[in-house]
Amino acid sequence: MSAAPLAAAVHGDVRIGLLFRGAGRPPFGERIRPVGDPVRLLLGEAPAPT
After folding, report:
1. How far, in whole angstroms, is CA 23 from its chain's centroid?
2. What is the pLDDT of residue 39?
3. For position 21, what pLDDT does the model report?
4. What is the DSSP letter of 22?
5. Which of 39, 37, 32, 38 shows the shortest CA–CA distance to 17?
6. Engineering a disulfide at 13: which of 8, 22, 43, 48 sits with its beta carbon 3.0 to 4.6 angstroms away?
């Protein structure tokens, strides 16, 4: 994998997909969510998904 997707993300280019995933269960299950959803969750600005 090239560094292009990471560089694009750093520069705010949303046309190139970039996904980060840890080893644990994702907080939103198997659903694909906009990046703002987990960010708001991590910042405590959104309730945990059910």
Report:
1. 14
2. 82
3. 67
4. -
5. 32
6. 8
**What tokens were used for 17?**
């997909």
> What is the token pair recorded at 34?
């906009």
pLDDT value, residue 24: 78
**b/e string for 1-27 if b means 16 or more Cβ within 10 A?**
eeeeeeeeeeeeeeeeeeeeeeeeeee
User: Can you read off the two tokens belonging to residue 14?
Assistant: 């949303």
Nearest-Å Rg of the Cα atoms of the chain is 13
Taking the model in full, what pTM does it have? 0.42
Could you report the average pLDDT of every consecutive run of 10 residues in the chain (50 residues)? Answer: 73 72 74 80 76
> Taking Cα atoms as reference points, which of 11, 47, 45, 5 lies closest to residue 20?
5
